[in-house]
Structure prediction request, 264 residues.
Amino acid sequence: MPELAEVEIVRRNLEKWWTSSALEVRWLDSRFGKKDQDRIDLALKSKPLRFLRRGKHLVIQTQKGGIYFHLRMTGKIVKRETWDIKFARLAFKLSKNNWLLFIDTRRLGSVDFLEGESLPRQFEDLGPEPEAVSVAYFNERIGKKKGLKSALLDQKIVAGLGNIAITELFWIYKISPQAKWGDLDEAQKEELCAGLAPYFDALIEKEEGDEIAYTNEPGASNPFLIYKRLGEPCPQCSVAIERMKVASRSTYFCPSCQASDLKK
Ligand SMILES: [Zn+2]
Prediction:
């Protein structure tokens, strides 16, 4: 599932590839409703102006309105020589043998039209980006007793984090998967806040390429330190990585490095 880093990589790729208006647009999935297809076609066939990301959301503004891509679980935008590719749902041609495709194996993603330079209503509720949070802000928004993981998953508190980032960050800063914000000492709070944006910057740098990968795809490599590494040795202490449900999400952790307050 895409989090901030994957959506930012898609945004950067689009900015690099999509410099002119589309010559041809093909809707390839009948499950896409007809709603707004004509207006999206017109926008795709006009000049793109801005490529915006906010949290996990992606908006392309053009001379003829905006296009809001929801990648949801498995969506991605890739460059191909033809539109005729498995799981392609929308394709637009930029030049000879040069197509951009919205592919989506689980078909949960969507594409919406935005009037003029308007932004999706989802943006109104989003919390700040990771680089803009502080301990004082979290003290106010999370409170001592709330589970930290569920708070960080809440896009209204901070935008762009997901299960994978939180799993990795908790391991990096030796935070128990079940910790509450009030369980952290001041140094941990400072470290975690200061570490959010650099975590994504490093992941973007490592994973940047023509196609984002999801770890649940066949043959995909796993770029993460402990996410989906059940039973493998902790990179820090070699104890086997364990898994538990926290905030209804599968959470990987090192029972030694992240030992505080574990209730099994
Ligand atoms: Zn460990």
Summary: The helical segments are 4-17, 37-44, 135-142, 148-153, 163-172, 186-207. The mean pLDDT is 94. Residues 130-253 form a domain with the Helicase, Ruva Protein; domain 3 fold (CATH 1.10.8.50). The pocket of zinc ion is lined by residues 234, 236-237, 239, 254, 256-257 (CB under 6 Å).
